[in-house]
Amino acid sequence: MNITPTPLGPASIPMDEVKRVKALGFLHRKGTDLFNCRVITRNGKVTADELVRITEAAAKFGSGEVSMTTRLTLEIQGVPYENIDAIRAFLAEAGLETGGTGAKVRPVVSCKGTTCQYGLLDSYGIADEIHERFFKGYSDVTLPHKFKIAVGGCPNNCVKPNLNDLGIVGQRVPGFDADKCRGCGKCQVEKACPVDAAHVVDGKLSVDPEVCTRCGRCVGKCPFHARDNSVYGYRVYIGGRWGKKSAHGIPLKKIFTSKEEVLDIVEKAILLFRDQGIKGERFSDTIQRIGFENVQAQLLGNELLERKAEIIAD
Fold first, then answer.
1. Residue 123: which CATH number?
2. What secondary structure, in 3-state letters, does 123-149 show?
3. With contact defined as beta carbons under 8 Å apart, do 218 and 174 qualify?
4. What is the pLDDT of residues 281-312, one digit of tens each?
5. Can you list the GO cellular component terms from the UniProt entry (predicted)?
6. Which of 77, 85, 176, 202 has the fewest Cβ atoms within 10 angstroms?
7. pLDDT at res. 158
8. Long-range contacts of 66-73 (CB under 8 A, 24+ apart)
9. Is 167 found in the same domain as 37?
10. Angle between helices 259-276 and 292-300 (to 10 degrees)
11. In the prediction, which pLDDT does 281 show?
């Protein structure tokens, strides 16, 4: 029987059992027979009643401590191996589940863009839809590796969407009426730009599209209404990651204006990863291996969704 080795001495739990309960959301604490129980939240949110049940579970079956992970799940600390089945049943009575590990879609994270003064999209709303459609809907779909998704309400990138396998960032694309621009010596649009993308050149406002982050803070600042119109949208990054190997996600060339189209992009990315990824590689490795332009063309096309049943069945 294989026993899990640790720097603090061997634990008494067989390695295959450690692996089995990890898939249920119980992470082994090295050198002990204790586990941390990962409780799934809805983007970090639980109800007051659910929170009471979690604290009761921590006191009854664990060490009495609860911690928050970087992915906005809750972990009940110090659960003895023999308490695993009991704590899962106790949490399930309140509709709570454990998990969030393994080579599959992980729980989504988002910033508070829905309520933040800088938010350009309903981050809570789209995260809830991703949670239901892809974390829960694809819970039985095995991928080459874990697949992390993050939603940022604006280009401030508070939850680092571009460091996830797939990141969504709120956008506000400003319009420009050149006929109304007076080329002011003290341009209010230029003053409002936080990334120094806007400048008056030869008597007209000029904005560098490579520098502009489409944060929308310049909209409505022109007293002559040259910058009043705008379109809200979504920028999608693919192939980000952090850890031992890090990579910045690359944005798709299109700024999407339809939430449904963005959700389809998420699904196509998951399907592509399952279909063309190699076991053990992250999505960033898949993109690098087969080429970003190839991946982008597939995500902007429809073939992956047309082959969905075939890809999932393989």
1. 3.30.413.10
2. HHHHHHHHHHHHHHCCCCCCCCCCECE
3. yes
4. 999 999 999 999 999 999 999 999 999 999 99
5. sulfite reductase complex (NADPH)
6. 202
7. 94
8. 67/36, 68/44, 69/38, 71/100, 71/106, 71/107, 71/109, 71/148, 72/41, 72/43, 72/44, 72/107, 72/109, 73/38, 73/39, 73/40, 73/41, 73/44, 73/100, 73/107
9. no
10. 130
11. 97
Amino acid at 184: C
- Does 185 lie in the same domain as 53? no
Q: How far apart are CA 251 and CA 72, in angstroms?
A: 24
CA distance 67 to 29: 14
Q: What pLDDT score was predicted for residue 310?
A: 97
The proportion of the chain whose per-residue pLDDT surpasses 70, expressed as a percent, equals: 96
Q: For 16, phi and psi rounded to 5 degrees?
A: -65, -30
Both tokens of 206, joined, read 């000029």
CA distance 267 to 282: 16
pTM over 0.85: yes
DSSP string, 16-75: HHHHHHHTTTEEE-TTSSEEEEEEP-BTTB--HHHHHHHHHHHHHHS-S-EEE-TTS-EE
248 in the same domain as 151: yes
Listed residue (110, 194, 165, 139) closest to 281, CA to CA: 165
- pLDDT, one tens digit per residue, over 121-171 is 999 999 999 999 999 999 999 999 999 999 999 999 999 999 999 999 999
The range of the structural domain enclosing residue 82 comes to 15-92
Residues 147 and 88 in one domain: no
Q: What's the distance, CA 225 to chain centroid?
A: 36
Mean pLDDT of the chain: 94
Identify the residue whose tokens are 């892809």.
134
73's tokens: 């799940």
Cα 157 from Cα 18, distance rounded (Å): 36
In a domain, 103, yes or no: no
Which pLDDT score, from 0 to 100, does residue 11 have? 59
